[in-house]
């Protein structure tokens, strides 16, 4: 029997499901893991931003700072996504405003780099996986790899490579069935 592998990358507005569970929440004291993920993401953002169907300008994008408010928001989202159980765990961006700091609402459009009429991808990236090695850093690499795979219509890649964001927060939660939920929330501050 093939080893069950379950990894979902969820786009804005797209909800994917996997087998039901109850939740054992991950500890919120993951600062070292979050700093590692930010370092990896900043390394990737320092490379050339790829043009995808003219959605990226090809320029490098600036480094992000780990933000406590965004981390709290991301952890709230990770916990609630892991706890949702109606027979199946449902990942959706529908409730992305739960726990969102007021200052971050529509903040990507407030960035001085934002050009009116352009799409601002984000602010949220979600991942659910039963892989044993899932960490925020692994999630960052999987989301970034969408550029090469075309997975999820490049949505997470475009979110993480957004030139409009300068802050990020991460959250992680473990579902009872072994699935790990990772959430990234981005904003301009």
What would you call the shape? Answer: globular
How would you spell out the order of helices and strands? EEEHEHEEHHHEE
Number of helices: 5
Can you tell me the residue ranges where pLDDT is under 50 for at least 5 consecutive residues? 1-28
Strand content: 15-25%
Radius of gyration: 16 Å
Distance between the termini: 49 Å
Report the sheet with the most strands, covering strand number, pairing sense and barrel closure. 6 strands, mixed
Question: Helix proportion of residues, in percent?
Answer: 25-40%
- Structure class: alpha+beta
Quantity of strands, as a count: 8
- Oligomeric nature of the chains: single chain
The overall pLDDT average reads 79
How would you explain this protein's 3D organization?
With 189 residues, the protein is of the alpha+beta class. The protein has helices at 31-45, 68-83, 136-144, 146-149, 155-160; strands at residues 7-10, 16-19, 23-24, 65-66, 88-91, 124-129, 167-175, 180-187. Strands 1, 3, 4, 6, 7 and 8 form a six-stranded mixed β-sheet that branches. A two-stranded antiparallel ribbon has the order 2-5. Strand 7 and strand 8 form a beta hairpin. The longest helix is centred in the middle third of the chain and has 16 residues, at 68-83. The protein is globular, with a radius of gyration of 16 Å. The termini are far apart. Residues 1-28 have low confidence and may be disordered.
């Amino acid at each position: 029997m093939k080893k069950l592998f379950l990894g979902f990358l969820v786009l804005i507005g797209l909800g994917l499901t996997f087998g039901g569970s109850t939740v054992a929440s991950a500890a919120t004291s993951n600062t070292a893991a979050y700093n590692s993920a930010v370092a990896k993401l900043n390394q990737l953002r320092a490379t050339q931003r790829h043009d995808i169907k003219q959605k990226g300008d090809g320029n490098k994008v600036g480094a992000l700072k780990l933000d406590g408010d965004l981390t709290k928001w991301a952890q709230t989202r990770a916990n609630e996504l892991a706890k949702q159980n109606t027979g199946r765990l449902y990942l959706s961006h529908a409730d992305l405003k739960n726990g969102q700091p007021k200052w971050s609402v529509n903040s990507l459009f407030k960035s001085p780099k934002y050009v009116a009429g352009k799409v601002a991808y984000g602010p949220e990236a979600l991942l659910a996986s039963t892989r044993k090695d899932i960490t925020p850093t692994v999630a960052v690499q999987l989301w970034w790899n969408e550029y090469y795979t075309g997975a999820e219509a490049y949505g997470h890649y475009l979110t993480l490579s957004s030139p409009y964001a300068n802050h990020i927060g991460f959250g992680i939660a473990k579902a009872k069935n072994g699935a790990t939920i990772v959430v990234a929330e981005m904003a301009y501050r």
